[in-house]
């Protein structure tokens, strides 16, 4: 039995448990996010059938020919909606593109919503009519689970339980289906996804179709993350790290290439990047600034920070 690298918590303890169960959950989640920045979550309430159906639809999309997929790549969108072709994105410290292509689904608001101008329409794929529809259902399920996790984090940070609620309602979150195609020749120093940290508040990831995800621990060792059945992997993003002045840890992670005998196997992974609204102030919380932990960051809004990072990773010019 492989030793677990990240702890596991049961979200239903928080959503359905009594006061003692909730308190235990908050302590365990806070400890995991403070010490390692990653945690496995069961009892998250995201239907297994919905995950499986979206996986099938995603696989069907990536199996389409390149010219067809490229019809769904929207110029000027910085990859925030629709398809992004192979080799466009790279980690901020790397010049070499990651070995992946992806499709993104974003927030939808009614036509008369004041935020409508900020949220472009999602891209619908004629060849797979259910793809975006299923993606939006999964998006809502992730939003709900992510909101509960942030309530627990707010309590851990001694903030009001609903601290994040107004910030993430109709927030700029992204559901991304990532396809790492089979590796057909010796890669030029690239790996499937070079080491990086996520931009957002938290990321929720449903089990990938193959291994390869690794995190960098505080001893500078790369350790494999292998979620169990029906477990989602959650990690802290840079926005939450900034807000907590490095108290909660945005851990470096990567997706390594499989052993050569498995090069022929593609990998599909579905992360949900939970973002707040663009105007959220990410200035460090006063209680997270102490003599032992002085202020590390200049004030910035979530929108400004996202814009800066999209440029660094090559999606925005």
UniProtKB/TrEMBL annotation:
UniProt pathway annotation: Alkene biosynthesis; ethylene biosynthesis via 2-oxoglutarate
Protein name, entry field: 2-oxoglutarate-dependent ethylene/succinate-forming enzyme
GO biological process, one term: ethylene biosynthetic process
InterPro entries linked to this entry: DIOX_N, IPNS-like_FE2OG_OXY, IPNS-like_sf, Iron_ascorbate_oxido_reductase, Oxoglu/Fe-dep_dioxygenase_dom
Catalytic activity, EC: 1.13.12.19, 1.14.20.7
Similarity annotation: Belongs to the iron/ascorbate-dependent oxidoreductase family.
Record SUPFAM superfamilies: Clavaminate synthase-like
PANTHER family (alphabetical): 2-OXOGLUTARATE (2OG) AND FE(II)-DEPENDENT OXYGENASE SUPERFAMILY PROTEIN-RELATED (PTHR47990)
Enzyme class name: oxidoreductase
Domain Fe2OG dioxygenase intervals: 170-276
The reaction(s) this protein catalyses: L-arginine + 2-oxoglutarate + O2 = guanidine + L-glutamate 5-semialdehyde + succinate + CO2; 2-oxoglutarate + O2 + 2 H(+) = ethene + 3 CO2 + H2O
Record keywords, A-Z: Ethylene biosynthesis, Iron, Metal-binding, Oxidoreductase
Signal peptide range: none
GO molecular function, one term: 2-oxoglutarate oxygenase/decarboxylase (ethylene-forming) activity
């Amino acid at each position: 039995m492989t030793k677990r690298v990240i702890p596991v918590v049961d979200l239903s303890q928080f959503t359905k448990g009594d006061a003692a169960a909730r308190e235990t959950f908050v302590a365990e989640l806070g400890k995991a996010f403070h010490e390692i920045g990653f945690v496995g979550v069961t009892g998250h309430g995201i239907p297994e059938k919905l995950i499986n159906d979206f996986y099938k639809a995603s696989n069907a999309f990536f199996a389409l020919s390149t010219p067809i997929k490229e019809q769904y790549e929207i110029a000027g969108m910085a990859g925030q909606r629709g398809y992004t072709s192979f080799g466009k994105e790279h980690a901020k410290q790397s010049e070499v593109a990651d070995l992946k292509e992806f499709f993104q689904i974003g927030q939808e608001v009614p036509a008369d919503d004041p935020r409508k101008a900020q949220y472009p329409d999602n891209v619908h794929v004629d060849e797979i009519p259910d793809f975006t529809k299923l993606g939006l259902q999964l998006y809502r399920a992730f939003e709900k689970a992510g909101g509960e996790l942030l309530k627990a984090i707010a309590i851990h940070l001694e903030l009001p339980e609903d601290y994040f609620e107004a910030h993430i309602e109709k927030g700029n979150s992204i559901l991304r289906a990532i396809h790492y195609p089979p590796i057909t020749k010796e890669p030029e120093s690239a790996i499937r996804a070079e080491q990086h940290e996520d931009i957002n508040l938290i990321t929720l990831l449903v089990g990938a179709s193959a291994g390869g995800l690794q995190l960098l621990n505080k001893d500078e060792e790369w350790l494999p993350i292998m979620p169990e059945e029906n477990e989602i992997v959650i990690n802290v993003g840079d926005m939450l790290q900034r807000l907590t002045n490095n108290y909660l840890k945005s851990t470096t992670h990567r997706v390594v290439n499989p052993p050569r005998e498995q090069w022929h196997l593609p990998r599909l992974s579905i992360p949900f990047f939970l973002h707040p609204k663009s105007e959220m102030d990410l200035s460090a919380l006063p209680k997270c600034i102490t003599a032992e932990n002085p202020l590390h960051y200049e004030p910035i809004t979530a929108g400004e920070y996202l814009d800066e990072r999209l440029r660094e990773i090559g999606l925005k010019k």
